[in-house]
Amino acid sequence: MSFSVQFLGTGAALPTIRRNPSAQYIECNNRHILIDCGEGTQTQLRKFQIKFQKIKIILISHLHGDHYYGLMGLLSTMSLLGRNQDIHLYAPPELKEIIDLQLKASGHHYDFPIHFYPLKEKEKVKIYEDKKIEIYAFPLNHRVATFGFVISEKEKDFRLKGEVFKMDQVSLQAIPFFRKGENFFDENKNQLIIAKKYILPPTSSKSYAYCSDNAVLESQIQYLKNVDCLYHESTFIEKHKERAEKTKHSTAKQAAYLSKQSKVKKLYLGHISSRYEGVEPFLNEAKEIFSNVCIAEDGMKITV
Ligand SMILES: [Zn+2]
Tell me: the pLDDT tens digits for 15-45? Predict the structure, then answer.
């Protein structure tokens, strides 16, 4: 079971050589997800050798250009390369009109179906679920309708003690029962096999949250309770707090405060404004409140 996040773009509005606009690629239990798709995302996917035709779910947080200007290009490339697999696209409702208009104006069409799910959530709501994972969307506090996301692994199966299992020559038919922690009745031997001897508890299920862009509110603590990793914007530092308030963004300190209150385990700060030369002030300011913090960099890959 794997759960990783690769940051493709960790900059704010203006793309720079060091930081692309927002995008990240998540691989969770063999599900491939893209969150946001700023300009240049497809070249970042290529640069970091990510097989982007595997992406099935795309989540767009809001319709400021630095979060979706790369989407038309990426979809177009997917189509040119012969994609026929569906894409499930979750985004503010207006994105559907934007895509339709661009396709109409260019006389193009995609050879794969796009299932569009308009985001309108006023609280934390489950928007996707399958056997292994769940995705939630919740409202953020920004200048236009903006959404954060939590991706969670579902409760996992019990692990098998392979050697004991083999040694006792237990029937293979027991495996699905043991994985659920249930005993198995072996009809051939007319014997009830007790699972306990052969299983270990499941590994813990992990969760990852994404918040960009957002001016922190107390009411958001409940959305992020106990997530393992949080990526949160910190466009500014406290020195430019007024600018943060005006543009409805956060400072590093505010993101750290939200993480502490939510009992998040690890915080990654991103969406760094191009006005800053170094990241030390972000780290120093955040660490005063929440110690387990890192600055996200383009290309950085983390395990949740
Ligand atoms: Zn924005």
Answer: 888 899 999 999 999 999 999 999 999 999 9
Q: Supply φ then ψ for residue 108, to 5 degrees.
A: -105, 165
Ligand 1 centre to CA of 176 (Å) is 47
Q: Which two tokens stand for residue 300?
A: 């950085």
Distance between CA atoms of residues 219 and 6, nearest Å: 28
At 252, list the tokens. Answer: 């590093």
> Residue 37 burial by CB count (10 A; 0-12/13-18/19+): exposed, middle or buried?
buried
Exactly one of 66, 213, 228, 298 is catalytic; name it: 66
Q: How far apart are CA 125 and CA 55, in angstroms?
A: 22
Distance 64 CA to ligand 1 centre (A): 5
Q: For residue 207, with 0-12 CB atoms within 10 Å meaning exposed, 13-18 middle and 19 or more buried, which class applies? A: buried
Determine the length of the chain: 304
The Cα–Cα gap between 277 and 268 comes to 18
186 is a catalytic site residue: no
245 to each of 125, 154, 250, 260, 278, how far by Cα in Å? 27, 37, 7, 20, 22
Q: What whole-number distance in Å separates Cα of residue 300 and Cα of residue 304? A: 13
Task: Kindly report the pTM of this predicted structure.
Answer: 0.92
The domains of the chain, with CATH numbers, are: 3-156+203-303 (3.60.15.10), 159-200 (no CATH)
Is residue 24 within 8 A of residue 31, CB to CB? The reply is no
Instruction: Please give the distance, rounded to the nearest whole angstrom, from the Cα atom of residue 234 to the centre of ligand 1.
Output: 12
Tell me the per-residue pLDDT of 94-114, one tens digit each, with 9 for 90 and over: 999 999 999 999 999 999 999
**Residue 4 alpha carbon to ligand 1 centre in Å:** 25
